[in-house]
Design brief:
Rossmann fold, single chain, alpha/beta, six-stranded mixed sheet, 548 residues, 34% helix, 3 domains
Length: 548
């Protein structure tokens, strides 16, 4: 089906892929592994027609092809689902599907397209309301639309209205027109364990129908459970290719990073702060680092209350769309709550006071400024891509204060501080180092820069949302160790994550955010709670006290 022979891709002086050989046939699932910046996305973009190689050739069904645009790939029934979604938020699901049609749609019939898209979804066992705007969907729902778009792109311009209606009634599976090759980049990043299992069932069904699937993931357990074969990239080269039955996760991790990675160990603490504090201890904790949220209402959030004490990590699990975004916007000072308060405090030396409270309806205030935020979206919220790394680091109020002179900003100090932090947090950039534009960083290095900015100066509460989403094994381990270190130094850490492995590895106490409410109420679960219990709460199958 698809074969890459000696493919090389350069961006200026940087070589993203060098002499890469890669092949996939019909009816197999191939895992593509590698660190951030190893060349996985570049390979996908070449096959998807977004980039063209500088050397080598791409062959499709035995013939050399030139994929000069995504439409060229679609015409050959190649579908790509990128890690960062490519949907128009203000358009409906049906409108996004029509926009992706390989041939221009002269007249858009909303009902016809909605029926068609919903029929395709039912063929995969999904329920989709094709009339809803994309901006109203959760991240997991948007991902399903991306998969539908990639899988059924070739069918979107092939049928008349009468054929579409007949298709809807007959539940046609469009077997002759669906994608023959599907490339998926981190497809389970935003799914519950149950939803991930459902997706795997769909992918296995597509494999049985002869579809080839390239599965890009940093979750080695998923790769071992799903894939037939694994190809590992490191620094733009293929360094290993093995049948899954003849390798293991530890060996693959070593191939990815070029060195042996120590066995994963629990990062959560085993000291006294892992236990739920008594009421007296909770009151005393208000004089130390803490984050206290009381009866918060905002958007999806309903009477949300939570207390995170100093020297602990509270993990908040849940599927995206259950109030995580509203919670982050309120805590970050971007949005005023409709009701409720939150209070944040720093660990103090005697005589100091740095507690601050924000109430419903207040604008961004001192409470928001006492928090360090690691946002879920490093692309659009965490960094300004047109700024260099020192300029992005100077967005920290602490660094700005240290560099603010009487007449001018001390950029020499800002850039020296940025260089030091880049070394400490292993942020790898080009030869220009702190003058490198943020847009040129790989995903892992961009995230480490955001984490460095959040943790360098804070003595109080840290809110980290999806801190390792899309990161490779080594980068994810590093970020998690930094969060654990922050808690060990006495800071209060709220971890908001859809990754259950991350929640269990880091958290001292665990809660679940479901439909804007905290489960199981304010009495959070200990770190030893079962994965099945947490997963059931994420799906709304187990309620907290007083919930229906």
């Amino acid at each position: 089906m698809l074969e890459l022979r000696g493919v090389t891709k350069r961006f200026g002086d940087f070589t993203a892929l060098e002499s890469v050989d890669f092949a996939i046939g019909a009816g197999e699932i191939v895992g593509l592994l590698g660190e951030n910046g190893a060349g996985k996305s570049t390979l996908m973009n070449l096959v998807g027609g977004l980039h063209q190689p500088n050397g080598g050739e791409i062959r499709w069904d035995g013939e050399a092809v030139h994929l000069t645009s995504p439409r060229d790939a679609t015409a050959r029934r190649i579908g790509v689902v990128h890690q960062h979604f490519m949907l128009v938020p203000v358009f409906s699901v049906a409108e996004n599907m029509a926009l992706h049609a390989p041939q221009a749609v002269a007249v858009f019939h909303a009902d016809e397209w909605a029926a068609r898209v919903e029929a395709w979804a039912r063929a995969l066992g999904w329920r989709v309301d094709a009339r809803r705007r994309v901006e109203e969907l959760s991240v997991g729902e948007r991902q399903r639309i991306e998969i539908l778009k990639a899988l059924f792109a070739r069918t979107t311009s092939q049928k008349t209205k009468a054929e579409s209606e007949a298709e809807s009634e007959a539940e046609s599976d469009d077997a002759d027109e669906t994608a023959r090759l599907l490339l998926l980049d981190e497809p389970t990043a935003n799914l519950t364990p149950g939803e991930a299992d459902e997706l795997f069932d769909v992918l296995r069904g597509l494999r049985a129908r002869g579809c080839g699937i390239v599965f890009v993931s940093h979750k080695l357990r998923e790769v071992m459970a799903l894939c037939d074969r694994v190809v590992v990239l490191r620094r733009g080269r293929v360094v290993g290719e093995h049948p899954v039955s003849q390798t293991d996760a530890a060996r693959l991790a070593t191939l990815m990073v070029g060195r042996e990675i120590s066995a994963a160990r629990p990062l959560r603490a085993t000291s006294d702060h892992a236990a739920v504090p008594s009421p007296a201890e909770a009151v005393a904790a208000l004089d130390d680092a803490h984050l206290t949220i009381r009866n918060l209402r905002c958007g999806v959030l309903r009477d949300f209350s939570l207390q995170v004490h100093g020297a602990e990590i509270v993990g908040l699990a849940g599927v995206d769309g259950n109030g995580q975004q509203e919670l982050m916007e309120v805590l970050g000072g971007l949005r005023a709550p409709d009701a409720g308060t939150f209070e944040a405090g720093e660990a103090q030396t005697p005589g100091e006071t740095a507690n601050a409270t924000r109430r419903a309806g207040e604008a961004s205030g001192s409470a928001a400024r006492t928090l360090s935020i690691i946002p879920a979206d490093r692309q659009s919220v965490g960094l300004i891509h047109s700024f260099d790394l020192a300029e992005n680091m100077a967005l920290s109020r602490d660094l700005r204060a240290a560099c603010r002179g009487r007449f001018a900003f001390d950029w020499t100090h800002a850039r020296r501080t940025t260089r030091d932090l880049m070394e400490r947090f292993d942020v790898r950039a080009s030869a220009t180092r702190e003058r490198t534009p943020a847009a040129n960083l790989s995903g892992g290095n961009a995230q480490k820069l955001v984490v460095a900015r959040a943790l360098q100066w804070s003595r109080g509460a840290v809110v980290a949302a999806e801190p390792t989403r899309g990161l490779d094994v080594s980068a994810a381990r590093f970020v998690r160790e930094q969060l654990r270190r922050a808690a060990d130094e006495g800071r209060a850490v709220l971890l908001i994550s859809t990754d259950l492995d991350e929640i269990f590895e880091l958290s001292d106490r665990i809660g679940v955010l479901y439909e804007g409410r905290l489960l199981p109420d304010e009495n959070l679960l200990p770190s030893g709670a079962s994965r099945e219990t947490i997963g059931a709460m994420m799906g709304g199958l187990v309620q907290g006290k007083g919930q229906k």
